[in-house]
């Protein structure tokens, strides 16, 4: 433990003095955690770390201006340094704190992948690092970028949008033939220029590519489309929020009519990220489609529909019992309709009506006449 403390910043005798001259709140909060551990050791007590419990929906509330957020009376998880089941996690957290401390002090950045490969034996897997970074972001009550830890983006973006990266690179997303990879440093984006009328989040990469191939962003009206290729990564979600804050234009979601589509994180949020809801979600995002009610209204052929699996039914039941659903009666109605019909459908099911039905009829009519919730 002493070695871990020294790794976090040097001589423990000098640490309190250095703290007095520290202005960065992240450094101060990390120092507070370490000094708490040292204080426990000096009093012959077992050092522990306390983390907010991010996995329970009981800790989640809904605010119409923010979206999902962690309640003030949330439960916590205690990580003990003397317990066989948690001592490894205790060491992992201290190591990660030491890495973050150095990054912040030197004003440099590292990816989660870099952190994992620099100590694979301690962390064991990339997923462990991913979860720990979120834990520390929650514990220190700061956005993940403030920890100077970046994630590799998997999302794509296209449409009426230009902006500048932190290093001065100018990004133009207006090409009709290729999309641009979402930046790994959303916080560094500046000088955003766009005449887009709306942003559309597209769940599936295949649907995104279809819209791209048909030049959707210019044929209908100037717009921006973005995909996280299934479950979106944090950078894709941060980008959506960045556009919302900068452009103040409507944001729509185009997802499958299934339990996982209705749980699309841009719309409802992950409970594990509710402590960062203000930067990861757009509370007024509108569910454009595919709605369960669309399947009946459009008479989508039965052979294009898929029966709900037991896993789907359990997911749907879980969604309907979440605390924020009571504040979203239209969403609740659509989910109950899916529960009653016992079928789901992918966006591609609209091709059973017509090969160009999605882009030529469905989306134009939805956007023109207000067919969203």
From TrEMBL:
Domain of life: Eukaryota
Protein's GO biological process: meiotic DNA double-strand break formation; meiotic DNA double-strand break processing; reciprocal meiotic recombination
The Spo11/DNA topoisomerase VI subunit A N-terminal domain, residue ranges: 89-149
Sequence ranges assigned to domain Topoisomerase 6 subunit A/Spo11 TOPRIM in this UniProt record: 198-367
Reaction(s) this enzyme catalyzes, per UniProt: ATP-dependent breakage, passage and rejoining of double-stranded DNA
EC number of this enzyme: 5.6.2.2
Subcellular localization: Nucleus
Keywords per UniProt: DNA-binding, Isomerase, Magnesium, Metal-binding, Nucleotide-binding, Nucleus, Topoisomerase
Main localization of the protein described in the UniProt heading: nucleus
Cell membrane recorded as keyword: no
Pfam families listed in its UniProt record: TOP6A-Spo11_Toprim, TP6A_N
Cofactor(s) this protein cannot do without: Mg(2+)
InterPro entries, alphabetized: Meiotic_Spo11, Spo11/TopoVI_A, Spo11/TopoVI_A_N, Spo11/TopoVI_A_sf, TOPRIM_Topo6A/Spo11, WH-like_DNA-bd_sf
Gene Ontology molecular function terms on file: ATP binding; DNA binding; DNA topoisomerase type II (double strand cut, ATP-hydrolyzing) activity; metal ion binding
Catalytic-site annotation from UniProt: 117
GO cellular component terms listed in the entry, alphabetical order: nuclear chromosome
PANTHER family recorded: MEIOTIC RECOMBINATION PROTEIN SPO11
Stated family: Belongs to the TOP6A family.
Name of the protein in question: DNA topoisomerase (ATP-hydrolyzing)
Native species: Salarias fasciatus
């Amino acid at each position: 433990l002493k070695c871990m403390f020294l790794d976090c910043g040097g001589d423990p005798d000098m640490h309190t003095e250095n703290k007095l001259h520290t202005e960065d709140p992240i450094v101060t909060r990390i120092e507070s955690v370490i000094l708490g551990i040292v204080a426990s050791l000096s009093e012959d007590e077992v050092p522990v770390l306390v983390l907010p419990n991010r996995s329970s929906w009981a800790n989640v509330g809904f605010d119409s201006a923010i979206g999902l957020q962690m309640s003030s009376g949330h439960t916590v998880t205690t990580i003990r340094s003397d317990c066989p089941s948690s001592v490894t996690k205790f060491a992992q957290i201290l190591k990660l704190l030491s890495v973050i401390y150095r990054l912040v002090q030197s004003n440099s950045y590292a990816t989660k992948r870099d952190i994992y490969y620099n100590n694979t034996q301690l962390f064991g897997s990339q997923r462990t690092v991913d979860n720990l970074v979120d834990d520390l972001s929650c514990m220190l009550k700061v956005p993940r970028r403030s920890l100077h830890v970046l994630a590799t983006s998997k999302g794509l973006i296209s449409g009426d949008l230009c902006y500048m990266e932190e290093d001065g690179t100018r990004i133009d997303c207006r090409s009709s033939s290729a999309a641009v990879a979402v930046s790994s440093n959303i916080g560094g984006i500046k000088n955003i220029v766009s005449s887009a009328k709306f942003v559309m989040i597209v769940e599936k990469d295949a649907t995104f590519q279809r819209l791209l191939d048909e030049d959707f962003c210019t044929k209908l009206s100037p717009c921006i489309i973005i995909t996280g290729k299934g479950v979106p990564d944090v950078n894709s979600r941060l980008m959506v929020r960045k556009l919302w804050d900068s452009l103040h234009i409507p944001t729509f979601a185009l997802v499958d009519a299934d339990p996982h589509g209705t749980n699309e994180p841009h719309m409802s949020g992950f409970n594990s990220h509710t402590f960062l809801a203000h930067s990861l979600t757009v509370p007024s995002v509108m569910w454009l489609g595919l709605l369960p009610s669309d399947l009946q209204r459009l008479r989508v052929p039965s052979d294009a529909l898929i029966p709900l699996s037991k896993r789907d039914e359990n997911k749907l039941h879980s969604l309907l019992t979440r605390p924020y659903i009571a504040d979203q009666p239209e969403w609740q109605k659509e989910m109950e309709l899916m529960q009653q019909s016992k079928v789901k459908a992918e966006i591609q099911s609209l091709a059973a009506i017509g090969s160009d039905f999605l882009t030529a009829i469905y989306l134009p009519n939805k956007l023109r006449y207000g067919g969203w919730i």
